[in-house]
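Submission checklist for the structure archive. All mandatory fields must be present; incomplete records are returned to the submitter.

[x] Identifier: V-type proton ATPase subunit D
[x] Organism: Platanthera zijinensis
[x] Residue count: 266
[x] Sequence attached
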Amino acid sequence: MSGQGQRLTVVPTVTMLGVMKARLVGATRGHALLKKKSDALTAQFRQILKKIVSAKESMGDIMRASSFSLTEAKYAAGDNIKHVVLESVRSATVRVRSRQENVAGVKLPKFEHFTDSAAADSKSSTDLTGLSRGGQQVRACRAAHIKAIEVLVELASLQTSFLTLDEAIKTTNRRVNALENVVKPRIENTISYIKAELDELEREDFFRLKKIQGYKKKALEKQTQDAKNFAEEKQLEEISLQRGISVNAAHNLLVAGGGKDDDIIF
């Protein structure tokens, strides 16, 4: 049986009808809210997708520029520049921190890059790297790689938000479809069933009342007829006693007199 033809098993009463109507109102409101949430998440999803495409397009140029700047630094300062840089660096200057951003009830992880103040204070030791030769190329290489790190952090944040939003949109759409195609049709069919049963009960009660009224009317007519017959019998008995005739003769005399007491001669 399809979802359109299914209904909940309930007792068809007025109280249950009110409960099912309240459930239908709640399901309708929930469907509207989830639909708005799905639309908001979809809009945010598309914006993030555009940013990802833009970041990936720029990442190729930035990574190529950083790799070429490293080659230039090695050419200008020599191959020993790697050991000099490793010896001069004590801690990372650029760091990454995470936070959460709430979008329509969905918490999206966000990664941000920042410069460590403690590491920035020791930057003076790295400024002297390549002072003998190639210092300008070393600083250019450092700036290019910092820019590449910033793009990678931004892309990682966008990719993580993209995957989180994708799962949230799928879950929300499943709930919307369940409410629209399963829950609401079942409640509506149940309400229709309860209304039909209540109408049938009302018709049965009306028919029962009509039958009871008919029985009461027949009983009243019978009582009236019995009372009339009893009064007639009493009258016949009185006539028969007064005239000294039988009840049948008194009945014939009463019928011959047209049912009027004035026509009877005592």
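[x] Structure attached
Curator remark: Strands lie at 94-103, 106-115. The helical segments are 14-77, 81-88, 117-121, 123-127, 135-243, 247-256.
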